[in-house]
Amino acid sequence: MSARDDFDPEQVPPEQPELASELLDLRDKPAEPLAPSPQALGVWELAWPTMVAALLQTGVRWVDFMMVGSLGTEAVAAVGLGGQVYWFIQSAVMAITTGLVALIARAVGARDPDLADRTLRQGIMLGSALGVALTLGGLPLSRFAIGVYGVEPQVVEFGSSYLGWLLVGNVPFTLVFVFAAGLRAAGDVRTPLYVGILANLLNVFLNWVLIFGRLGAPELGVSGAAIASSLAMGFQVVVFWVLWQRRKLVLEPRGTGFRFEPGLVRRILRIGYPAAIEGALWHFGLLFFMRIMSSFGTAEIAAYQIRAQILALSFIPGSGFAMAGATLVGQHLGEGNPAAATRSGWRSIAGCVAALSLNGAIIIAFAAPLARLFIADPQVVSLSVDFIWVLGVSQPLMAVEFAAGGALRGAGDTRYPLMVVFLGLFVFRLIPATLAAYVFGAPIQWVWSALILDYLIKAMLLAIRFARGRWTAIEV
Fold it and tell me: Integer distance in angstroms from the first to the last C-alpha of the chain?
């Protein structure tokens, strides 16, 4: 990894404009089969399909909560906790997908389809092996993982069952992430969207069948929601695989079979392992944060899980602009144009701040109705409204973390975001929250307010890192 001190982000060649407007690219695309050239890609063009895909996935997650909400507060808390642990386990996949995005984006920018295909094949092999390992390692620990939160026995029972069935479908989950990351890095953000739409419809239908025992199926309750999710992911993998083998994807097979390439694997993991550690630390920090809140009671835990679903609204534009920034930064660096990469990153940040600021205003305005979508318990609704206000205020800061972090990772700069997440989450969120809860005996609202300080620190540090421009010389 190297850094170049003399790069000036302001030196943008005026004869090579990237976008027709700040967020919309109106220019024609070339006809090459690999992907549009970096000059033909715009921030909004890349961001909106990823946003829609995230919106649909969030909708399915909400359906899970709404359907199990009829089973009681314990079921809602269990689904939230089980999902939390599962995504903690899945953070290991970021070691693969983050490296894939950086390498495939640069290969596309450099017009090297052979390298793009070889990188995707290594990702498929790594993803399959990791998926099996996580399943075998996680299943025996499901009950223990939920019990760590210190929740009631019924929540542990429901949550461990939900987590166990998610882990059974772990390999399909992992491979879906690999295919989607590779395609988006190559500029194809619509295929993952279309495949996801079909899978989400299947997921909702299977929820109805398996949770409530429709069409002659057994009534599986919370477990049925997890089984439905795993089956839907399996469907996605089959579709991606068939399209890839039939050369219907932008990343076409350039060879036959799978051959382990140690050098390429090392490049993927060298870029990706800090992102995996970052994801693990983030989820571990959330686990610790949840443990603090569990001392307040089940109503507070349920409110936090409802808050998590509202927070998913933030992930929708955030993930879209983060992916757009990562793709454009990586492709422009691959073609040797750091100035355009810098401009793309700043436009991704600006678009994300505008979108999440609007999002924050909306969720604050409709805080109570949003909370009532998930549960009718007045105490939980009241607590959820308080937390939604904290989230609304934090939205612009979260936007900078999303977009600036995505742009840096697209350049292969993954170690700095790891340090920033550790500092913000553990030093500026967990320490104040612990003091508020256990030393000062403050109400839960003060514990939740520590999030604002966390997001403020991360936004500042990531923006400064991107502004300095040294990431433009990182070698992947």
Answer: 8
Q: Are 163 and 143 spatial neighbours (Cβ–Cβ below 8 Å)?
A: no
**Rounded mean pLDDT, 120-142:** 92
- Is the Cβ–Cβ distance between 389 and 364 less than 8 Å? yes
CB neighbourhood size of 295 (10 A): 13
CA 160/CA 175 separation, integer angstroms: 23
The radius of gyration computed from the CA coordinates of the chain, to the nearest angstrom, equals 22
Per the structure, the count of domains in the chain is 1
How far, in Å, CA of 161 to CA of 143, rounded?
Answer: 8
Q: What's the domain range around 446?
A: 39-473
Please return the burial class of 144, using the count of CB atoms within 10 Å of its CB with bins 0-12, 13-18 and 19+.
exposed
Residue 183 in domain:
yes
Q: Sorting pLDDT into bands at 50, 70 and 90, what band is 179?
A: very high
| Residue 356, in any domain of the structure | yes
Q: Is residue 25 part of a domain?
A: no
Q: How many helices (H) and strands (E) does the chain have?
A: 18, 0
Interatomic CA distance for residues 290 and 292, integer angstroms: 5
CA atoms of 196 and 470, how far apart (whole Å): 36
pTM: 0.79
- The answer to whether residue 8 sits within a structural domain is no
- Compute the distance between CA of residue 3 and CA of residue 21 in angstroms, rounded to an integer: 31
Least confident of 5-9, 108-112, 381-385, 422-426: 5-9
Q: CB–CB of 418/475 below 8 Å? A: no
User: Which pLDDT belongs to residue 54?
Assistant: 82
